[in-house]
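Hey forum,

I'm writing up a methods section and want to include a predicted complex as supplementary material. The small molecule is pyridoxal-5'-phosphate. I've pasted the protein sequence and the SMILES. Can someone with a working setup run it? I'll credit the forum in the acknowledgements.
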Amino acid sequence: MEIATNIRRIKSGIPERVKLVAVSKTKPEKDILEAYNSGQRIFGENKVQELLSKHSRLPDDIEWHMIGHLQSNKVRLIVPFVSLIHGADSFKLLQVIDKEAFKIEKTVSCLLQFYIAQEETKFGFSIGEAIEMLDSEEFKQLSNVRICGVMGMATFTSDETTVRNEFRKLKGIFERLKADYFADKGHFCEISMGMSDDYRIAIEEGSTMIRLGSLIFGSRNYKQN
Ligand SMILES: *Cc1c(COP(=O)(O)O)cnc(C)c1O
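Reply by user p_vandermeer:
Happy to help. Structure tokens for the complex are below, copy them as they are.
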């Protein structure tokens, strides 16, 4: 009951245009089903094995989003069913996704992950790296990935100004890429930013997709990424 209530409360407090990704990592299937039965359809996981087993046992009309760092050698396993890969963080990874998607005649939607935080450990492109990739001939040859927007994580801090500035930076990157590379691509429209602690700020700064775990399902037993 509590999960359904949490989702209802969150949804009533956010604009309708903002998509809610329920981050179910580490949580049991019964929790996911409770969210599902309350109408939630988008779920996010950050480990390939967990995503595979949950996908195989839960309803078919769930949209599974891969939100974590994805290793090239595991891409093949999720390409057949994944709805959106949030963490496309290198050209090499995009090439592998493209190759695997091509093999099964699918187009896979991806977000370019940007490094916006002050922390050392976060994955992602810098704006310079992304532009270099987008300008390259090799990038233009990708046929089976669809770049739907950008994703980023703010610094883990209680300093609201820092977080807001980082989200603003990601929004700026989105606008720039949209204008220079994706102006004619209607599908380039997503800005995935905002987690349980900072999603309100993210929405104020233009988020179109928030990824909430603990606020929906309660705190996780162990800390993952
Ligand atoms: C775990 C995780 C989230 C959700 O975190 P909460 O703080 O529990 O909302 C969002 N995005 C990514 C990439 C994550 O790994």
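Some notes you might quote in the supplement: The pocket of pyridoxal-5'-phosphate is lined by residues 23, 25, 46, 67-68, 195-197, 211-215, 225 (CB under 6 Å). The chain has a mean pLDDT of 96.
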